[in-house]
Amino acid sequence: MDEKSIEKSIETIPEIQFDIRSAKLSAKQVKKLGVIILNKSPLSLAECDPNLAKLALYTVKEVLSSDGFSVLPKIEIIRNFLLRVACARLWLPELDIPELTEAILIDRVEDWLFPYLCPVSNWKELSDEAVEATLGLLLTSPFFSQICPTHINIGIKKRNIPIKYSLSAPPSFEIIIQEIMGTTSLPKIAYNKVPLSVTLLSPARRPLQTTSDLENFWQGSYQQIRKEMKGRYPKHFWPERPQDFLPNATP
Pick from 157, 148, 242: which is nearest to 196 by CA? Predict the structure, then answer.
C-alpha cells in the first residue's frame, strides 16, 4: 500500500468516555488505521459541538441503561424529584402531570440532559438547582417547584428546611421544638391542598412527636413533654403556653 493509499485509509473519529466513579465525561480525537490507533488527542466538550454532544449523549444513555442512575453523584436529587412528581400526580390529577420514572428518564435523556451536557462534563460540578432545572424540562407545568417545593422556610431562624415526601404519608419536615414555638398552624403545599406534618425535635435533635395539628399539640401532649424535657434540658425554654411565644431556640 503506497503513502497516498495509507493516508486515505486513516480515520479521524471522536471518542467519548464516561467514568462511572467520577461521573465525568471526557472526549478524545482518535486517528486510526484499521484497528491500529495512531494517535489520541483531547477534545473540549465545553465547545459543545452538536455532533460531539450527540455522541456524548449516546454514551451517557448507554451507561445509564446498563448501570442505572446510581452511578451519578446526584442520585438523591433525581430520586427525590421523581418522588415529588409521583406525589403531585397523586394529589393533583387534574393537572395531568406526566409520569416520570428512572426508565423514562433514561429513555428521554436527550430531552433534559442534552442542553447541559457539554458545558458541564462533570455531574459533580452541577448544583442541586441545576439538576432540578434539567429534570424540570420534562414537565408541562412551569410551577412544579411551587407545587411540591424541596424546602420550607419556617421558624424564628427562617432556615430552609427539607421537606420529606412519601406516597403513603403526609409530606413532613423536622425542626427543634423551640424554633417553632409561637406557631399554631402549619402551611399547605400542592396549591394549598396538602397539609404538612412536623416532627418536633429535642435540643439534641431526637424526635419528640410528629403532628399535623400544632394548636392541639401545644394544648395537649406538649405539657407532658415539657415536664420530661425541662429537667433534661434546663437551659432551654419550656414555657407553659408556647403558642403565645415567638419561636425561640434559646432561653
Answer: 148
